[in-house]
Amino acid sequence: MELKMRAGHQGTGPGAITPDGCAVELYSRLPVRDEPEVIAGAVPAGAHILELGSGVGRMTHPLLERGYTVTAVDESPDMLERVRGARTICSPIEKLDLGERFDAVLLASFLVHTGDEEVRRGLLRTGVRHLADGGCVLIQREGEDYHTNVPRERVDPSGFTVRIVSSKPVGDGTNSVRAEYDFPDAAWTQTFRARPLTKGEFEAALGEVGLGVDAYLTEDRVWVKAVLVEEG
């Protein structure tokens, strides 16, 4: 079944494009950076991780290599076809209810910045719904200057160039962001909606679902460890 493109989202380039404008072949080429090390520093060895929005497995595979058990969830069957060695579940994240609990829930790829606030609440509630006692939700935020330091360009050591071309307000506190990826043999673009969140707004969003910041895991505060906040 072909999934409908989300309003305000678009992608171009070779291969399948997901509803949020991501190109499957592009994400299969993007290198892994320091994300697995950040996660491993916050999650006990041998833990069972629920990865929400796994894509093609860029983080799934390094986590499996480190001895974690990973359940990878994505709404795109084309993305999940690239995942190897993990249990995979094709589902919208905000509707997921496995009836299971996990040591850690991973919500990366700036998903917390979705333009739809109800979807954001749904994503975070899914994390809470699947969290074991004493577990944590690891969240990747946008950098503090993600929407203001534009245009910007980075040449990756592996030989491709990524550009954030623009970030323009489109109403209701959301921006339309355009990204370009140029490889020697192919090029992709992605246009998507994102909601900038200050540190205070982000922490308030966590509070709406009963989560609180346990620690900011990186100096730039992009990676966050959140835990359930006890009432009373």
Short description:
By secondary structure, this protein is an alpha/beta fold. The protein folds into 2 domains: 22-142 and 198-228, Vaccinia Virus protein VP39 (Rossmann fold, 3-Layer(aba) Sandwich), CATH 3.40.50.150; 152-194. It has helices at 24-29, 35-42, 60-65, 77-80, 117-129, 199-208, and strands at 10-12, 48-52, 69-74, 87-90, 102-107, 131-140, 152-155, 161-171, 174-182, 187-194, 211-216, 223-228.
Give a description of the structure:
- The structure is a single chain.
- With 232 residues, the chain is of the alpha/beta class.
- It folds into 2 domains: 22-142 and 198-228, Vaccinia Virus protein VP39 (Rossmann fold, 3-Layer(aba) Sandwich), CATH 3.40.50.150; 152-194.
- It is built from 6 helices and 12 strands.
- It has helices at residues 24-29, 35-42, 60-65, 77-80, 117-129, 199-208; strands spanning 10-12, 48-52, 69-74, 87-90, 102-107, 131-140, 152-155, 161-171, 174-182, 187-194, 211-216, 223-228.
- The strands form 2 sheets. It has a 7-stranded mixed β-sheet with strand order 4-3-2-5-6-12-11, sandwiched between helices. The protein has a 5-stranded antiparallel β-sheet with strand order 1-10-9-8-7, with no helix packed on it.
- Strand 11 and strand 12 form a beta hairpin.
- The chain starts with 9 loop residues before the first strand and ends with a strand.
Architecture blueprint of SSEs:
Blueprint: E1 10-12, H1 24-29, H2 35-42, E2 48-52, H3 60-65, E3 69-74, H4 77-80, E4 87-90, E5 102-107, H5 117-129, E6 131-140, E7 152-155, E8 161-171, E9 174-182, E10 187-194, H6 199-208, E11 211-216, E12 223-228
Parallel strand pairs: 2-3, 2-5, 3-4, 5-6
Antiparallel strand pairs: 1-10, 6-12, 7-8, 8-9, 9-10, 11-12
